[in-house]
Amino acid sequence: ALYARGVPQTSTHGEIVTSLIASKSVGVSPKATIVSVPLAINTTISQFDILEALDSVLLDPMRPPVSVVLCAWGIPKNRLLDSKITELQEAGIVVVAAAGNKGIAADYISPVGLDTVIGVGACDAFDRVIPWETGSSNWGPEVDVFAPGVDITAFDKNGFIIVSGTSAAAAIAAGVAAQIISRHSEMTAAQVQKHLTDSA
Fold it and tell me: I need a surface site. Which of 25, 61, 82, 134 has the fewest CB within 10 A?
């Protein structure tokens, strides 16, 4: 199971990242089971909303022993959120987090600033980290891997769309994590994470 819901930059942000994970046309892992974890679509998402969403993952009785949570969002460094992310990891969940698109050190952002999550930056088809209109990929030792995140074909309810950013890159990495779990059912969450980062 892969738990995915981005904090919406537009009303279709969640659709876009989900299409990159599990759609038949552009998804990395089309057989993954997606479990939507809704976050209220407001101008501001509160800390409480995020913690409540993560608690719903922890309390899901259908959650398999090893699963993936995609955090295609970030907030300023927050110890309470980081503590909740640690709880998820202790429960057998691989946490994949977008590095962010501000061109700053990822250490200032939660949850990517945690050393224990898979922090994902964005690169182009030539493995270059380049700026785009709204910023560029965050950087630093908390960014564990780079994945395609520049001019990526995704889709939403209106059809195909071209997107750029670390949300897209993190969705692709989350799809890879789901594939690893499928192929190596004996692995723990920590082993899945190590396999992904070691082989990137």
Answer: 61
Task: For 125-135, write each residue's pLDDT tens digit.
Answer: 998 887 766 67
Q: How far is CA 29 from CA 26, 70, 91, 168, 174, in A?
A: 9, 14, 23, 14, 9
CB crowding 72-93: b at 16 or more within 10 Å, else e: bbbbeebeebbebbeebbeeeb
155-161: long-range pairs with CB below 8 Å, 24+: 155/15, 155/16, 155/19, 155/23, 155/25, 155/26, 156/12, 156/15, 156/16, 156/19, 157/12, 157/15, 158/12, 160/26, 161/12, 161/16
Residues above pLDDT 70, as percent of the chain: 90
CA dihedral sign, ordered 148, 150, 151, 154: positive
pLDDT confidence of residue 10: 46
Q: How far apart are the first and last CA of the chain?
A: 22
Which residues in 114-125 are b (16+ Cβ under 10 Å) and which e? Answer: beebbbbbbbbe
- The model's pTM is 0.91
Averaged pLDDT for residues 173-199 = 95
Q: Specify which residues 146 forms β-bridges with.
A: 121
pLDDT at residue number 44: 67
